[in-house]
């Protein structure tokens, strides 16, 4: 149980284009999902907290107009990187809290490797 | 906000020896402390966690201790095996938000 999927697993795009990443909880309902970014050999940095049916809460320094988050259902959150540039190249990972389970535990998706040319 | 410091950044141990990773946190409101193992290009995998009302927890070769007064917690891996080689992250949770340490690259020498 408690499986989180992400799609795509990797994407290469040209500078200036937008990329959408999907995060799904497959066997549980997630009231809250989190989006992280991880640069090579670095730690996970929280970008934003996504709550179903409401606006996402962004961490300090994260541009909300650049990283659009939509949490339309209890099993799906999407992150859209708008007008991507090479410095946005990174490993993007989502996680989800189980509505029914232990509230603190976050289950991570497999990540999406974004490369912007 | 929460600040989590993790040491050491790299750790090399002989197979069969123990590995210890230490973390400190700054926010006394943090109440949940998970440890994750991450292999290259993969998702972080929860290996053990501890809540603020518990001082110690063990799961086979892995144990975690928490000192709330000193605001530090540690991961202990005994009888290390080559498959324990990975990057390990500690984290502290405040209001369900996780703050991660910088990570420890553990290498187990055969």
Reconstruct the topology from this structure.
The complex is a heterodimer of chains A (117) and B (110).
Chain A: E1 4-7, E2 10-13, E3 19-25, E4 30-38, E5 44-51, E6 57-58, E7 67-73, E8 76-81, E9 90-98, E10 106-108, E11 112-116
Parallel strand pairs in A: 2-11
Antiparallel strand pairs in A: 1-3, 3-8, 4-5, 4-9, 5-6, 7-8, 9-10, 9-11
Chain B: E1 4-7, E2 10-14, E3 19-25, E4 32-38, E5 45-51, E6 56-59, E7 62-67, E8 72-77, E9 86-94, E10 97-100, E11 104-109
Parallel strand pairs in B: 2-11
Antiparallel strand pairs in B: 1-3, 3-8, 4-5, 4-9, 6-7, 7-8, 9-10, 9-11
Protein described:
The complex is a heterodimer of chains A (117) and B (110). With 117 residues, chain A is an all-beta fold. Helix content of chain A is 0%, strand content 55%. In chain A, the strands form two sheets. In chain A, strands 2, 4, 5, 6, 9, 10 and 11 form a seven-stranded mixed β-sheet that branches. A four-stranded antiparallel β-sheet of chain A has the order 1-3-8-7, with no helix packed on it. The mean pLDDT of chain A is 92. With 110 residues, chain B is an all-beta fold. Helices cover 0% and strands 59% of the residues of chain B. Chain B contains no helices and eleven strands. Chain B has strands at residues 4-7, 10-14, 19-25, 32-38, 45-51, 56-59, 62-67, 72-77, 86-94, 97-100, 104-109. In chain B, the strands form two sheets. In chain B, strands 2, 4, 5, 9, 10 and 11 form a six-stranded mixed β-sheet that branches. In chain B, a hairpin with a 2-residue loop joins strand 9 and strand 10 (97-100). Chain B is globular. Chain B starts with a strand and ends with a strand. The model of chain B has no long low-confidence stretch (mean pLDDT 95). Chains A and B meet through strand 5, strand 9 and strand 10 of A and strand 4, strand 5 and strand 10 of B.
């Amino acid at each position: 149980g408690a499986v989180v999927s992400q799609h795509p697993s990797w994407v290469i795009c040209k500078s200036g284009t937008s990329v959408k990443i999907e995060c799904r909880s497959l066997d549980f309902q997630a009231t809250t999902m989190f989006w992280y970014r991880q640069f090579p050999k670095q730690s996970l940095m929280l970008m934003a907290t996504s709550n179903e049916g409401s606006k996402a809460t962004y961490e300090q320094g994260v541009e909300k107009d650049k990283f659009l988050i939509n949490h339309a259902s209890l099993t799906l959150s999407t992150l859209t990187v708008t007008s991507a540039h090479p410095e946005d190249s990174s490993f993007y990972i989502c996680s989800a809290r189980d509505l029914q389970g232990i509230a603190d535990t976050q289950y991570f998706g497999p990540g999406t490797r974004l490369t912007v040319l | 906000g929460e600040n989590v410091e993790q040491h050491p950044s790299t750790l090399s141990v002989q197979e069969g020896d123990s590995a210890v990773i230490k973390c400190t946190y700054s926010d006394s409101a943090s109440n949940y402390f998970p440890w994750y193992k991450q292999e290259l290009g993969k998702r972080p995998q929860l290996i053990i966690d501890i809540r603020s009302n518990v001082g110690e927890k063990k799961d086979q070769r892995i144990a975690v201790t928490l000192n709330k007064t000193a605001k530090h917690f540690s991961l202990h891996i005994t009888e290390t095996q080559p498959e324990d080689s990975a990057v390990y992250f500690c984290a502290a949770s405040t209001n369900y938000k996780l703050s991660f340490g910088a990570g420890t690259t553990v290498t187990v020498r055969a």
